[in-house]
Amino acid sequence: MKFTAIATALLAGSSSAFVATKSPSSSSTALQANIAVFGASGLTAQECVYQALKDGDSVFGLTRNPANVVVPKGSGGADADKPIVDDKLTVIGGDVTNAADVAKVFENDIDGVIVALGGKTSDVGDSMLTDGTINIISAMKAKGVKRMAVVTSIGAGDSKDQAPFAFKILMMTVMKKIFNDKNNQEKAVEESGLEYCIVRPGGLTVDAPTGVINVIDGEAGSIPRADVAQFCLEAVKDAEFPYIGKAPCISSVGGTSWVKDRSASARGQA
After folding, report:
1. Any idea what the Cα angle at residue 191 is, between residues 187 and 195, rounded to 5°?
2. Under a CB-based contact definition with an 8 Å cutoff, are residues 51 and 233 in contact?
3. pLDDT tens-digit map of 191-235
């Protein structure tokens, strides 16, 4: 597997500042890797795809909606929403709950896997995250791929107390099904025996990357999807990544008093 050590963690009181050696807009000098991205048309996954390609990596994405794999708003600047055209990008149309579709990704020599699945349970079902992730784990084991980053959410697993009160209410009511799925997804990852990092971001935005990624012990603040993507890419490419086998909660702005932003602007919709 092709990895490079390009990040350090600096302890600072109740939080750790994850520091990458490259600026948000620059390309890494890392060895090129083959990265699989599941849920490739999602807003966070788009950032993973785009940034990996900018780093010179080859990307193999699986999504139900290949036409929606476009330049992200956060990192893409004036090119946002344009189709991503790159010889190193392979997009496979398929369903992560279909093991045969997942296997198509691993017909390629994959070095690291990013799982950034999403969607409303009314559209994708009550167990898509768990079922899809189990398929990915099985395919990884079959091909000897060890490293994965899985994006879930603040409030999942043992981080319930890190979610603001108003968000906890949503978790117990209108978001109960999706959080049950997220919790089962995390359990599957934790029991996989793989080299994993479960990434629990705070309030997601489509802002430009800040390059500041704080690992938070208390309530998590907001974070651009672009910064989440950078953290995920470091997780699968850095042999000495400090959060392997862990489930860090991350934010870029503040670190307290985050309120779930359900507005259209948070999803990149004017």
Report:
1. 110
2. yes
3. 999 999 999 998 899 999 998 898 988 777 889 999 999 999 999
